[in-house]
Design a protein that fits this description.
Structural class: mainly beta
Distance between the termini: 33 Å
Protein name: DUF1349 domain-containing protein
Pfam family, one: DUF1349
InterPro entries: ConA-like_dom_sf, DUF1349
Shape: globular
CATH class: Mainly Beta
Radius of gyration: 15 Å
Helix content: under 10%
Number of helices: 1
CATH topology: Jelly Rolls
Order of helices and strands: EEEEEEEEEEEEEHEE
Number of strands: 15
Number of domains: 1
């Protein structure tokens, strides 16, 4: 099944809609795939360079209700620096966040970006392998990012607030592919799961 309009995954209780450039999104046998084209990224430089209004990357997003966790194993086809598969969170045109499995620039790395007008950028840890599990969670106006190398024990990466309470509850979440310096990056998302709850403890590995 290919996303030309909305796409419904059996693992998720809400439909997904494509945004930005064509990501060639498709879903089959539990695997969601998408592809960023050359030099496609979603990042607003914090250092004051002129903004490029055309800068964007393929996204596939939906609107969960209440507290939730969105989980997926992410396998990017790394080729160029900063190629990445991403779980993405959107609350406004200049208020959004990315949890990335990225080639950064030579080693596969968990990194995060939170954009409030302009983007920050922070690396968390290096991953020894071609795939990693990522998780976005929400409670109220708060969001948390976690990553896991086995899908069982989770490493806390970041907790933050984005937008006001109304915006946070209307947030869109989902999937993104990027290739800021390369000729494109294909990404596979599998082991997708949804839980209607905030983690019991952000830092105990659960």
């Amino acid at each position: 099944m290919t996303a030309t309009g909305s796409l419904t995954l059996p693992e998720l209780p809400f439909p997904l809609r494509p945004y930005g450039p064509d990501g060639h999104w498709s879903y089959q046998d539990g695997v969601l795939t998408g592809r960023a084209g050359p030099r496609q990224d979603r990042f607003v430089p914090p250092t004051g360079e002129a903004l490029d209004p055309a800068s964007d990357a393929p996204r596939l997003l939906g609107a969960p209700e209440g507290d939730f966790q969105l989980v997926a194993r992410v396998t990017p086809g790394f080729a160029a620096p900063f190629d990445a598969g991403v779980l993405y969170l959107h609350v406004g045109e200049r208020d959004w966040a990315k949890l990335c499995f990225e080639r950064s620039p030579d080693l596969p790395t968990i990194c995060t970006v939170v954009t409030r007008g302009r983007s920050d950028d922070a690396n968390a840890f290096v991953v020894d392998g071609p795939a990693v599990w990522l998780r976005i969670s929400r409670t109220g106006a708060a969001f948390a990012f976690h990553a896991s190398t086995d899908g069982e024990r989770w490493t806390f990466v970041r907790v933050f607030q984005l937008g006001d309470a109304r915006q946070a509850q209307a947030a869109l979440v989902g999937f993104l592919a990027q290739s800021p310096r390369g000729e494109g990056c294909a990404v596979a998302f599998d082991r997708i799961a949804y839980r209607p709850a905030w983690p019991t403890d952000l830092r105990d590995g659960s």
